[in-house]
Amino acid sequence: MRRSAIAASLLLATSIPALAGSLDALRDSLDHLPATLMFEDRGDLAYFIDIRAVLALSPGEGEAPPYMRLMHGAQIPALESLQYSAPAEWEAKAGTTLDQVRYFTGYGRPPDVYSFWGLADEAAATEMIVALEGLGFESAAAGVVGNGEPLRMDPAKRNPADPWRTGIGAAQFAAAKGSNIVQTGTPQTAMLAAAQQPGLSENAIIETALAGLDQSVGDNTVVQALVISPLFGMAGIDHGALLSGSPDIEATKKPIEEQMAALDQGIPPYLGGIAADVQGEQPGVDIALTYPDCDSAEDAVGKIAARWADMAGDTAQGNVSTTTVEGVDGLCAATFSVTINSDGVDQTPAYRALIEPMFRGQAGVLQIGAS
């Protein structure tokens, strides 16, 4: 109850624009993430949340924004604290006001966790650093401020309403990078993430996926998105399904064979891509995967559509459209879009059908396979 009441008061106290189309926020977020993310050894490279879109999706005046819609595997303290804070409480600790925040992005695995505050402009980022210094942050490295000792657990300072404390009360560090504020657990990682370097959006694979997504999304709004690598389509064996106390070898062998057969089926190998939870008149999912050429992309869209019909479940079915879009350096985006009939504001069945198998380590619609 406290969470819903606080979120509702946050919505009423903040001026939030109505839903707006275009990929501007998503593209801007990827401009600030390092291109080196493409070399990370995981399938879910980075998560994006358009906080203005989330707040604008509130079902009615005085109702809580639909935070339950969000599905992400990143640690984003600012977003987590926002869901449990009254507006004045959150802004007093954040170092900025909510109307200055456009989006959040996050990536990494503990202890190397990175989150980015996407602000209105560079001036807002500069002012936020000054505000944090006024809240007791001190210089921790060149261009970096922090509120304590790195990676030190301090339960006494744990505060769910404080975006600058982790769940164990550990300190956080901030650095400005253009219109973004980088937030990490150590001064060194903050300084590294804020350094001038090629952005993820400059990578030809991601640039091509953005071109495909731009055409697919149209005037709709990207509420949240996930940047993926080919490893997203290489799910492992579900070990739990293989555990058996039976001495019957046939009973043990059957689930192994079934899983191996499932892992052999899928879509053509892709280079990377973006999957987005999209809102127009109805919610849906838009996927853009980058392929070496448009012949491969054309082959892929048909297989994605077929796997979606077979695997996504009845509640995730809807109006489907597919196309291919020429990208850069001869690359091509295979795009798949589905719009479902849903009036709810919680997790959409379509995005859940796409993301949930990854969290469970299971083969999903975008599984790469030989057939």
Q: Which features would summarize this protein structure in a list?
A:
371 residues, alpha+beta, 12-stranded antiparallel β-sheet, globular, disordered N terminus
Plain-language structure description:
By secondary structure, the chain is α+β, with helices and mostly antiparallel strands. 34% of the residues lie in helices and 22% in strands. The protein has 12 helices and 12 strands. It has helices at 2-13, 24-32, 51-56, 77-82, 87-94, 122-134, 187-194, 204-217, 239-242, 249-263, 294-311, 349-360, and strands at 44-49, 101-109, 112-119, 138-141, 144-146, 173-177, 180-184, 221-228, 272-279, 283-291, 319-326, 332-339. The protein has a 12-stranded antiparallel sheet with strand order 4-5-6-7-3-2-1-8-9-10-12-11, with helices on both faces. β9 and β10 (283-291) form a beta hairpin. The longest helix is centred in the last third of the chain and has 18 residues, at 294-311. It is globular and about 60 Å long. Residues 1-17 have low confidence and may be disordered.
Strand order of the largest sheet: 4-5-6-7-3-2-1-8-9-10-12-11
The class by helix and strand makeup works out as alpha+beta
N- to C-terminal distance? 49 Å
Output the number of helix runs.
12
Largest sheet: 12 strands, antiparallel
The outline comes out as: globular
Strand content: 15-25%
Overall radius of gyration: 21 Å
